[in-house]
Amino acid sequence: MIRSVRTVCQLCVGIVLGASLCGSLPVYAQEPAVATGRTIGGTVQNQDLRRVPQATVEVKDQEGTMVGGAVANDAGEFTVEIPDDGTYSVSAVQDTYRSEYAIITVGTEPSAPVTLTLSKTKEIALEVVSPLAPIQYKASSETYAFSRKDIETLPRGNNNELHDVLLTIPSAVYGSLKQVHIRQDHANLQLRIDGVPIPDTVSSTFSDVISPRAWERADIILGGLEAQYGNKAAAVIDITTKSGTKPAFGSVQMLGGSNQTINPSFEYGGTIGEKFRFYILNSHTATNRGIEPPTLGHSIFHGQSERNQTFIRGDYQHDNKNNFTWLFLNSVAKYQIPTTPGIDVDPSGQVLPLLQAARPGFTPVASQAINEFQKENNQYGHMVWRHDVNANNFFSLAGYLRHTRATFKTDPFNFLAYTADPAEPFSASDQDRNAYSTGLRLDYTYVHSKQHLIKAGFQIDRTQSVNKTRLFTFLDDGAGNPTGDLLSLNADNRQLGYRQEFWIQDQWSPNDRWTFNLGLRGDAVQYPRSEGQVSPRIGATYKYNPSNVFHVFYGRLFTPPNLEAISFAKLNTVGTRAQPEDLTNNTVRAERAHYFEVGSYHALNRYATLQFTGWYKLSNFLSDAGQFGTTPLLNYFAFERGWQRGIDGALKLQLAENLTARGNVAWGQCKGYGLQSGHFLLEAKEISDINSQGGVFCDHMQTLTSSAIVSYRLLERTTLTGQMLFASGLRTAENEDAKTNSSHSPSYTVYNFSVTHVFPLPWEDQKFLLGFDIINLLDQKYFINQGEGSIGLGVAHAGMPRSFFLRGQWFF
After folding, report:
1. How many CB atoms lie under 10 A from the CB of residue 205?
2. How crowded is residue 762: how many other Cβ atoms within 10 Å of its Cβ?
3. 47 and 117 in contact (C-beta within 8 Å)?
4. CB atoms within 10 A of CB 435
5. Per-residue pLDDT tens for 11-36?
6. 454 to each of 227, 450, 583, 790, how far by Cα in Å?
7. What is the pLDDT of residues 483-505, one digit of tens each?
8. Distance between the two ends of the chain, CA-based, in angstroms?
9. What distance in Å separates the CA atoms of residue 802 and residue 797, rounded to the nearest whole number?
10. Helices (H), 669-757
11. What is the distance of C-alpha 788 from the center of its chain?
């Protein structure tokens, strides 16, 4: 297998290098499809030279009447047929970005290709809302887009966190601890910033490395991934971040309200000289709901958290063919672990005497005063060089560095004093996980002709992780009872891993109706187990007419576990009360899957689009992860095999110039059979249920999920937004005797509401936004999960009760 991967690697590198060299030679019949006569063509790009797909191009005559339009393809190319000879203006627009107007004279001679560069438009109080953008028709996947305005319209605006935004897309299930499960996968999300994949943090849950406040746009791909996308494959969130503009812009914002929440933030973007642009963001958040508590209502015990986030971006435009982007992210946070009041001390009467023998005079605190907390420290930076060899050859080369650390501290004596059943394995533990990742990535695009768009590249990643554990427990007397002094067991698990990815992809459009996405990628990892796979990706899209598009897709997926989240297998607990019920210690395997998808897009009219998607995933070594104990840090395990399936539909409406709506509904299932790894993390009954003939439903599975948003602009400057989130409930078991994950938590529906008003200020280009938000308007009491009864979840997490927030933002 590794030999096959190396062969593909060599082939991809050869193609990339050969095509780059050829790019400096004359190119024949390969210009963006610009014909003779009455045709205007060219490309749309960002200021950092990244080509912009799905940008709308408008052509107007000298009277300002629109005479033609088009949508840029995946290489940013467009062509527009013009009815008559003459002089025309051409411009491109996407969200809040627009290019300058290019003046083109159309006659008997071919028009030269035009390059349209998008830049941020100047906001005014009265926005012009255009009909919905044309549907995409060449990607063999379900795609979903968020503009900056979509985020700002949500209740709490751009103060929302990553998981809040993702919950508005189809098939997104919330699983507590800020985890979002899409398409019945446990997390498995690939986050990209300006085209560069960001390595996961150690916790993969808490500290959002990048706040939605810094987003200008996000394109989300659900399944049907081209060969360039690997490693994490449930969904790709490709974020285009804000960058500096001329004239400069900035804002200061404050949000505060229920749950002792206070969130000040500051952002500023501008230019230095003619070639350098910069953007800076800082945000500080304090709340007593950093982690969802195990108790309903506003009474939260030991739940305070603080987090500070910094985002810095700089862009240097060396010339018309070379752009350099530097990015730095920093996130530092501390979370108290919420507790439950009213728990009885040592109901068995076995543990407390041992603790008092180890520490004379020890008296347990009340259960709500147990002091456990977690600190997180994450930094990430990359440098990207984007270069246009010519109109048909362009690439980006990125180098990145990430440091991530999470430290969990327990309160051993007080925690152990509340051990419910010492006959079951029990312990308390400190954990310290940190990892350093460095990598290099090349993305190359070659526009061979109007029919062929070729992409190729590679990524190489090196990760060094350290997992330190200090575990507190007692000896076993041989009859299953604790005895002796309190033990402190230590383990230091250091691992060094490498990952290589190579791909080549051809988007072949033999005619206007058919597009075939043909790709091949190779993946290899050298983790505790060296593995690799060559994965074909094949998709076909048929455009029945401009309003109805259909696609099918088949692809192989290869998903290795995060190196830093592989369980601490070196800790020897034999002969103690922490000894697991099953000592099997298999190394977790990378997930290998066959993925199938069929879907369609429909433009019902200029104001409504509808999309449907059905998908099925068949996996060997189906990957999962769980929260074992009170620590929020997750540990990976895998089933021998499993499947996931589902269908979803999404509707987007522009009902009127001042009224928009979008909604979705999704059905899905996930099931695993046989336990491949993680035996020492699970209870004997859970292992028995997993290994049974019928297997078990996955703990992150939710059968039915739906969301909807309606936004209405009143009297030009006031916006009203309503949001609905429905969940049928995550898996659990009715009681200890029932099969694992054989039932589900009660369903719940949450309604959110916000109203904002913009006040123009007397100073030039300044305004003030005042907003009021209500979360969980009807005060629905619900648990996101119920802890016991599902795999790897011993702690329940309750949803937010009715909460009120007030925000103000000064734009200058």
Report:
1. 23
2. 5
3. yes
4. 24
5. 343 433 343 333 333 332 223 333 44
6. 11, 11, 50, 45
7. 999 999 998 888 899 999 999 99
8. 57
9. 16
10. 684-690
11. 28
